Amino acid sequence: MGPEIAGSSLELLRAKVLHNEYPPGYLPKRSTQAMIPLPYLEAELPAIEAYLATFEQ
Ligand code: HEM
Questions:
Q1: Which atom belonging to ligand 1 lies closest to the Cα atom of 4?
Q2: Ligand 1 pocket, residue 6 CB under 6 Å
Q3: pLDDT tens digits for 14-42?
Q4: Is the CB–ligand 1 distance for residue 29 below 6 Å?
Q5: What is the DSSP string of 24-54?
Q6: Is the CB of 43 within 6 Å of ligand 1?
Q7: Gap between the Cα atoms of 34 and 25, Å rounded
Q8: Is 13 helix (H, G, I), strand (E, B) or coil?
Q9: Which of 3, 15, 19, 38 could serve as 29's disulfide partner, Cβ 3.0–4.6 Å?
Q10: Is the pLDDT assigned to residue 57 strictly greater than 90?
């Protein structure tokens, strides 16, 4: 349902997953606002970043 997120930075994950925002100057892959914030994942974000870094981009 969402765009490709392989290789997403921790900065991007923090902004989007926790606050449904994007880092300053970042161009989103889509202009929609369909994803809900998932703030309970805060402690997991470094692990999610590491996992997403394992995929080819
Ligand atoms: C651990 C769970 C999730 C992570 C790490 C994640 C991560 C991201 C990131 C980083 C983006 C921004 C991509 C970019 O523009 O570069 C994004 C966008 C998006 N995600 Fe997620 N996401 C998660 C869960 C979900 C879920 C559960 C849904 C839908 C049910 C979803 C739907 C979308 C959609 C539709 C977008 C495009 C922008 C928008 O409409 O909000 N994501 N996601």
A1: 13
A2: no
A3: 999 999 999 999 999 999 999 999 999 99
A4: yes
A5: TT---S-----SPP-GGGGGGHHHHHHHHTT
A6: no
A7: 20
A8: helix
A9: 3
A10: no
